[in-house]
TrEMBL record, chain A:
One of its GO terms (biological process) is DNA repair. The keyword Iron does not apply. Transmembrane segments: none annotated. GO terms for molecular function: damaged DNA binding; DNA-directed DNA polymerase activity. CDD domains: PolY_Pol_V_umuC. GO terms for cellular component: cytosol. SUPFAM superfamilies: DNA/RNA polymerases. This is DNA-directed DNA polymerase. Poorly processive, error-prone DNA polymerase involved in untargeted mutagenesis. Copies undamaged DNA at stalled replication forks, which arise in vivo from mismatched or misaligned primer ends. These misaligned primers can be extended by PolIV. Exhibits no 3'-5' exonuclease (proofreading) activity. May be involved in translesional synthesis, in conjunction with the beta clamp from PolIII. It comes from Komagataeibacter diospyri. Pfam families: DUF4113, IMS, IMS_C, IMS_HHH.
UniProtKB/TrEMBL annotation, chain B:
It comes from the Bacteria. Residues 1-29 are annotated as: Disordered. This is SOS (Error prone) mutagenesis protein UmuD. InterPro entries: LexA-like, LexA/Signal_pep-like_sf, Peptidase_S24_S26A/B/C. Residues 9-119 form the Peptidase S24/S26A/S26B/S26C domain. CDD domains: S24_LexA-like. Gene3D superfamilies: Umud Fragment, subunit A (2.10.109.10).
Length: 420, 128
């Protein structure tokens, strides 16, 4: 019988901030979304103060009872590196690890010659000691059960961060207690539908006739039911599926009403998208550019548009910028205050696979220039050398007023320690 | 970097070293920076000068290593992250300041806000 585990970091982004700042180790910590918009990660101290997921920062920052809260802009280079450390620790102890999201990883615990509760406690201690991240682990015969077990480990402090659902009898007890909405893959809509049909708990759903489950919730729901019954339907995938498309879209730090700023922003997004392409060794053959005003702002006129076109397969920053600006020119309308823009690339293919019959550019020259660009930016930091079209002042950039240093990925940002 | 000359692809006489290029030494490899337990930190202050650790030095610290008496560690002490010596005396672990003769000691006690964060494993000084 297979055994899957799920290890999940507690308030991951906040925990990453705490690794490098001793003074916030017990303080309420909140990490904000891109552009310092709303709360996306909260420590338990912050949750106790009543801060909800998605609370807008500009609405709650002045609340007198939140004076002691430590706010942070999201620092993705740091979180990615800490996620990498967590993964490497796990990979050194567990045969197969699936990085499911930046802060949760599935583990293949099948056939390990250890006492699993003791092993999982050690694993948790090691992640805590090496990557400095607190976690919870749950496990069972399927991924869906492992995910549920993880949630139980998180919600019940008396379990000390681990929850074993590998035994049928243990599962039954929890299944009778927990609502169907707690299950991975059962969304709010589906849960409501089930509840209307009298299915309240997980036990009710597991006991439901499987043909009825399928006809009510399609094959997806039937699979969730089978997984909850202990039949594994979702295998572990160690590598992410190759990308179909790739996008770089952002909300601006302030509304943008002139062509120069908009052009710079779109040029910057094309640059970032091209970097992502090259990092994965891909080329793109289809591009979309879109712009829009704020749909929530009712007092000003609303406008949104997009344009797409096929392009000669490339990952060259300069070519992609040219194409993106050509598309932007077609949809740009003066007189609007733009709120968001983006560049999306599709038709991805491994570089070097497609050699067009009538190439209009020199691929060798292009790849040497891009290699040099990536090498400089890799060494001295993102954006050290960038096309002038990306702009110099870049006032449209997302707000990151409370950004912490990139403690582990930039030499000038590493943690300072006081000699004593 | 593709296309860079590394002693291999010569235009006239074939390089006898074309199968033997090894590239420059990679210090991040030598210092094990790819491992999850290695973190670079920067020293502030000269209190550990006697141990050869100066203000501005980069220390490579290891969060998986077991501290031994007399080694230099990065420690959490209340709201601070410090670098100091660790010592075992009278059956207990102590943080010891690096200031020679009249060195101060502080008991190591994770329950009371002092714990070892990592053990110092290597030192990098970019400018002499």
């Amino acid at each position: 019988m297979p055994i899957y585990g799920l290890i999940d970091a507690n308030s991951f982004y906040c925990s990453c901030q705490r690794v490098f700042e001793a003074r916030i180790r017990t303080a309420p910590v909140v990490v904000l979304s891109n552009n310092d918009g709303c709360a996306i990660a909260r420590t338990k101290e912050a949750k106790q103060l009543g801060i909800k997921m998605g609370d807008a920062w500009h609405l709650i920052r002045q609340r007198p009872d939140l004076k002691g809260v430590q706010w942070y802009s999201s620092n993705y280079p740091l979180y990615a590196d800490m996620s990498r450390r967590m993964y490497q620790v796990l990979e050194s102890r567990v045969p197969r690890v699936e990085p499911y999201s930046i802060d949760e990883m599935f583990l293949d615990l099948s056939g390990l010659p250890y006492d699993l509760p003791a092993f999982c406690r050690e694993l948790r201690d090691e992640v805590r000691a090496v990557a400095k991240i607190p976690t919870c682990i749950g496990w069972g015969p399927t991924k869906t059960i492992a995910k549920l077990a993880n949630g139980i480990a998180k919600d019940r402090p008396e379990l000390d961060g681990v929850c074993d659902l590998s035994r049928e009898a243990d599962r039954q007890a929890y299944f009778r207690e927990l609502s169907i909405g707690e299950v991975w893959g059962i969304g709010r809509r589906t849960a409501e539908k089930l509840q209307r049909a009298g299915i309240q708990t997980i036990a009710d759903f597991v006991a439901m006739d499987s043909r009825a489950a399928r006809s009510m919730l399609t094959v997806v729901g039937a699979r969730v039911q089978a997984e909850l019954r202990g039949q594994s339907c979702l295998p572990l995938s160690e590598v992410a599926a190759p990308r179909q498309g790739l996008a770089c879209t952002r909300t601006f730090g302030r509304l943008v009403d002139n062509w120069t700023d908009l052009r710079e922003a779109v040029s910057h997004y094309a640059t970032t998208a091209a970097e992502k392409l090259r990092a994965e060794g891909m080329t793109a053959s289809f591009m979309t550019v879109f712009i829009q005003t704020n749909p929530h702002q009712k007092d000003t006129s609303w406008y949104a548009n997009q344009q797409s076109c096929g392009i000669e397969p490339t990952s060259d920053t300069l070519v992609l910028i040219t194409e993106a600006l050509r598309l932007l020119r077609r949809i740009w309308k003066p007189g609007y205050r733009y709120f968001k823009a983006g560049v999306m690339l599709d038709g991805l293919c491994p570089a070097g696979m497609q050699t067009g019959l009538f190439q209009t550019r020199d691929p060798v020259k292009s790849s040497r220039l891009m290699d040099a660009l990536d090498a400089v930016n890799g060494r001295y930091g993102r954006g050290t050398v960038r096309p002038l079209s990306n702009g110099l002042d870049r006032t449209w950039r997302a707000r990151q007023a409370m950004l912490s240093p990139a403690y582990t990925t930039r030499l000038q940002d590493i943690m300072e320690v006081k000699a004593w | 970097m593709s296309g860079a000359y590394a002693g291999d692809r010569t235009t006239g006489f074939a390089s006898p070293a074309s199968d033997s290029t090894e590239g420059p030494i990679d210090l991040s490899e030598a210092l094990d920076l790819h491992r999850p337990n290695r973190y670079p930190v920067r020293v502030v202050g000269d209190a550990l000068a006697a141990r050869g650790i100066l203000h501005g030095d980069i220390l490579i610290v290891d969060t998986a290593a077991r501290p031994q008496s007399g080694c230099v560690v990065v420690a959490r002490w209340q709201d601070q992250t410090i670098v100091c010596e660790i010592t075992r005396q009278r059956g207990a672990w102590w943080l010891r300041s690096g200031k020679g003769q009249d060195a101060q000691m502080h008991p190591l006690d994770p329950a009371h806000d002092s714990e070892v964060w990592a053990v110092v494993a290597a030192l990098v000084r970019m400018k002499i």
